[in-house]
Amino acid sequence: RSSKINELENELKGLEFLIHQLRHVNGNDIPSFLAETGYVSKQEIEAAIVKVTQSLRKAKGEQDEIEEKPDPSTTEKYTLIDIPDNMLTPEQLKEKKRQLFLKTTSEGRQRAKQKRFEEELERERRNKEDEQRRLENPELYMEQLRVKYRDLSEKVEQRKRLKTNGNHGNESNNVSGGVGRGERLNAAQKERMRLLTTAAFDRGKGEDTFGIKDEDWQLYKKMSKDNDDEDEGPNEDEAELARVASRLRMAGIGQHAPKCRIDVNYPLMQEIDPTFFPKSEASSSGAEPPRFRPLTKEDFQILIGVERFRCPEILFRPNLIGVEQAGLDEMVGVSIRRLQQSRSEDIEENMTNSILITGGSCLYPGMSERVEAGVRMMRPCGSLIRVLKASDSVLDAWRGAASFASTMHFPRQVFNKKDYYEKGEDWLRQYQLKYAF
Question: Is the whole model's pTM more than 0.85, yes or no?
Answer without folding.
Answer: no
